[in-house]
Each structure stands twice: as structure tokens, then as C-alpha cells.
Q: What sequence folds into this?
């Protein structure tokens, strides 16, 4: 497994096109694997996420079974001249040693951009429809509901740091709610996806299950930059 | 000595210190003559009561600009009711949406009477011009034994909620203080002809008064910290492949 980081050059038109369209960015990410043919059935899961830390700090993270080649991204949306002087313009890290070291009881900071949805039946007799959670409280509950299976537990806040009596139990912030809307060839209506970013602190309860989450993703809309969870040491 | 504080807030205010003839300008802050006129009106003094006015004029005056407001220009036309002759066209300036805290310092019994008078005014108070009614009660409090600058510095920020929210990025806001007595760190940078000698409608007379400008910092209760993205670097423990 590999974890790759690529910084987008926000001043370039190519980068703006990718930032604006999750579809375009997905296509760009998927085409960075030379061994992966578009027609390949049952192809391995590639996860990606775009972190918008500041107006000019846009970091694309990709977790993939194979090693990516992001030359085309550097050319369209990176710094090709800087990359020409020896460095490839992106960083690929080996992910497997880190994943193997994950242990039960370890405490990590995590970040996850996800598409929290549930299925509701609007009228009796009709099939259920996938519907986005729109309130922060529901979005938190969505993530909490995946702790058991995911092999992690979100840490609770000490009593004195809670700002409200209820609803502020966990070391978790939900931010950056975004609505994606685009048309897909072959579908009648627009595709609408709501994404939120979670930042928080978790404890590993089942290392194998968490490894599965980290490499295969959590929730829906994985093709559109959702579901990739990354861990960082709590000192940073 | 004690200090009486007033809040001057209204949709429109107009405080002329040098307004003459057809161009009726306004200062950026209430004038001493305007505020003393308001107090005299609350007491029920007549326009020609020069002796009582002389007593009022001994009060020391200071004002804090809590919300500067915006300047509005009005172009006024009027016709005589009987002859239908047009009056001279005049330009009138106002401050819209401004809030000030004014303070007067003087002898205790005089300020106590003035405070009572403001609660039951003989003539209704207005903010510099009769068309500018106050939007809030004018009187705030009497501070016994206080000094003018200290009381103005200690007063909480009186700006409107929407204005405080607009400056939510600032945890502390800096307000301008215009006082008659020197304040620490102030500059005596101006004189204003607004020390009233007589409000007699036949011949109003004013003397020059010095104005010391300084600033005061007050907390903003509506301040909110900017939301920042938490740091997150998943690569710090990984090795380049």
C-alpha cells in the first residue's frame, strides 16, 4: 500500500478545474496508475481526498495498492519547472509498515472527509432513497455508528472542556460541509452529494478492522473524494 | 465631584458647531453646546436663562464614539406657508446610525438634579436637531466620585448588536475619546466653538473650547475567534517509498 501526497498549484487553470470538479479529479487520480486499465473488473480500491487547509494549500492524498505516477497532474496543476530539477513533484510513502504497526489501544488524530447518508422511505410502498444527513448532530451520529465495525472509538472530551451540556461529548469537529452537484452521462437527473470533513481523536479498538477502513474507505461516494481516513500522531 | 453618563443613539443625529446659513453641517461627535442644550431642556430652562446656563456651562464634558455612523446629506427645500415664496435652499448633514456615550462632570447636587430631570424631562430631548429623536433612554447613570476620563474608559461598549457582530473579528475595539480635560496619552489637537454662553434665539453666543483626542480599548462581547483548520499531517511517520 502507498500513501501519496500532491500539492495543487491553485494559481493554475488546470488545478482550478480539478478543484471545481470531483469527477475530473477522480479521473485524474485513476489515470495515475499505469497498471490499471479502465476496463479492468474488480480493480483495487483507490481512495483520495482533497484537503483545503488554506486558499493556497491544497493537498491531494491518495491511498492505493499500486504506486501512482502523477506526472500528468504535475504538468496540469503542479510546478513542472520545480519538478524538472530532480524531485518528481509529489511524494509517495510506503503505507504498509505504518499499517502493520497499528496496535489496539493506540491513540491518533484522524481526518476523514465522508458522505454521511442514510436510507429513508418517503412513502409507504415506495423503495427507500439514499438521503444525506444535514445537521452536525446527525453527521456525528453517523460516524459514531461506524465505530464498532471500523475498529476505532472516538475519544470523549473531559468534562471541563465541554462547551454545552449535551451534544459536545466527543473530541470531534465537523466542518466544511459541501454540496457537490454534477451530471453523469446516462443518468436523468443531477447527482447530488453532501460531504463533510471530520477532525478528531480516536483510539484503536480493533487494528484489523481499522486497517480495512484506512485502505478501503468509509461510507459512500468514494469516487468523489470521500471515505479516506488518515491518521496522524497526536503531538502534531 | 461626580460624573453623569448619557447615551446618544438614534437613527439620525446632527451636531453642528460651525453651521451657518444654508449649509448646516455636523461634527463627528456630539458637541458640548448640543448636550448642554439637551440637559437645559430637560431641566425646563428657557432660551434666555443665561444665568442658569452659565452654571451648566461649568460642567466638564467628554464624549466617546462607540459607533461612528455614516454621514447623510439632505437637500432641503421649503416654501413659506402664506406667500408660497421659496425659502433659501439648504443643505443639512446628519449622522445616521451613530452611538455615543457622553459624560459631564460637576458638583454632586447639580448632577443629581440633572439625572432626575432627564428621567422626567420638561422639554423632550433630541439629538442635536429637533427632527432627531433618541432611540434609547438618554440617561445612563451618575458615578459619584468618578473622574470624567476614567468613567468614559470604564463604560461598556454601547454599539448596536449588528455593528458589534460586524466587528466580530476584533476581541477588543479601539474607540475615540474626545474630552475637555486632558486624558493620559491624549493630544490637545483641536478647538471647537461650542462652549455655550447664551442660547438666546436673538443672538446665540459660543466660546472656544479645547478638545483632547485619545483612544480607549473596550472588549467586544460579540467577538468570535476565526475558525481554523486543525493541523493534520498523515505522512510524518511514513518513509518515502
A:
Amino acid at each position: 500500500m502507498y500513501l501519496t501526497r500532491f500539492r495543487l498549484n491553485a494559481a493554475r487553470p488546470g488545478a482550478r478545474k480539478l478543484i471545481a470538479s470531483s469527477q475530473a479529479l477522480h479521473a485524474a487520480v485513476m489515470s495515475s496508475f499505469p497498471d490499471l486499465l479502465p476496463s479492468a473488473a474488480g480493480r483495487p480500491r483507490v481512495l483520495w481526498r482533497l484537503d483545503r487547509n488554506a486558499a493556497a494549500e491544497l493537498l491531494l492524498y491518495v491511498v492505493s495498492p499500486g504506486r501512482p505516477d502523477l506526472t500528468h497532474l504535475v504538468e496540469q496543476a503542479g510546478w513542472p519547472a520545480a519538478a524538472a530539477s530532480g524531485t518528481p513533484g509529489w511524494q509517495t510513502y510506503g503505507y504498509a509498515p505504518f499499517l502493520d504497526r497499528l496496535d489496539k489501544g493506540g491513540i491518533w488524530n484522524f481526518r476523514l472527509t465522508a458522505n454521511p447518508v442514510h436510507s429513508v422511505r418517503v412513502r409507504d410502498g415506495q423503495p427507500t432513497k439514499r438521503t444525506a444527513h444535514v445537521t452536525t448532530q446527525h453527521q456525528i451520529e453517523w460516524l459514531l455508528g461506524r465505530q464498532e465495525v471500523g475498529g476505532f472509538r472516538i475519544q470523549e472530551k473531559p468534562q471541563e472542556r465541554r462547551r454545552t451540556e449535551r451534544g459536545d461529548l466527543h473530541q470531534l469537529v465537523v466542518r466544511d460541509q459541501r454540496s457537490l452537484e454534477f451530471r453523469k452521462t446516462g443518468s436523468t437527473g443531477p447527482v447530488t452529494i453532501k460531504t463533510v470533513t471530520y477532525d478528531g481523536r480516536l483510539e484503536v479498538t480493533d487494528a484489523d478492522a481499522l486497517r480495512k477502513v484506512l485502505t478501503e474507505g468509509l461510507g459512500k461516494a468514494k469516487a468523489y473524494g470521500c471515505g479516506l481516513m488518515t491518521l496522524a500522531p497526536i503531538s502534531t | 465631584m461626580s460624573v453623569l453618563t448619557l447615551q446618544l443613539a438614534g437613527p439620525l443625529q446632527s451636531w453642528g458647531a460651525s453651521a451657518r446659513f444654508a449649509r448646516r453641517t455636523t461634527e463627528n461627535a456630539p458637541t458640548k453646546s448640543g448636550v448642554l442644550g439637551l440637559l437645559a431642556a430637560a431641566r425646563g430652562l428657557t432660551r434666555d436663562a443665561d444665568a442658569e446656563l452659565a452654571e451648566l456651562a461649568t460642567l466638564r464634558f467628554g464624549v466617546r464614539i462607540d459607533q461612528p455612523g455614516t454621514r447623510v446629506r439632505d437637500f432641503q427645500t421649503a416654501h413659506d406657508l402664506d406667500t408660497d415664496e421659496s425659502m433659501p435652499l439648504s443643505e443639512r448633514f446628519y449622522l445616521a446610525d451613530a452611538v455615543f456615550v457622553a459624560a459631564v462632570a460637576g458638583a454632586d447636587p447639580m448632577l443629581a438634579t440633572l439625572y432626575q430631570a432627564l428621567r422626567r424631562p420638561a422639554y423632550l430631548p433630541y439629538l442635536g436637531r429637533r427632527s432627531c429623536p433618541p432611540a434609547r433612554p438618554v440617561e445612563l447613570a451618575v458615578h459619584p466620585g468618578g473622574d470624567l476620563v476614567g468613567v468614559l474608559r470604564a463604560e461598556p461598549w454601547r454599539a448596536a448588536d449588528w455593528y458589534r457582530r460586524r466587528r466580530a473579528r476584533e476581541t477588543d475595539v479601539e474607540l475615540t475619546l474626545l474630552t475637555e480635560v486632558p486624558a493620559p496619552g491624549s493630544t490637545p489637537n483641536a478647538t471647537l466653538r461650542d462652549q455655550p454662553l447664551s442660547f438666546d434665539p436673538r443672538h446665540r453666543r459660543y466660546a472656544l473650547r479645547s478638545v483632547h483626542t485619545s483612544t480607549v480599548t473596550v472588549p467586544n462581547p460579540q467577538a468570535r475567534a476565526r475558525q481554523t483548520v486543525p493541523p493534520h499531517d498523515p505522512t510524518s511517520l511514513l518513509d518515502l517509498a
About this structure: The beta strands of chain B are 2-13, 23-24, 60-67, 70-76, 90-106, 139-144, 172-179, 187-198, 205-219, 239-240.
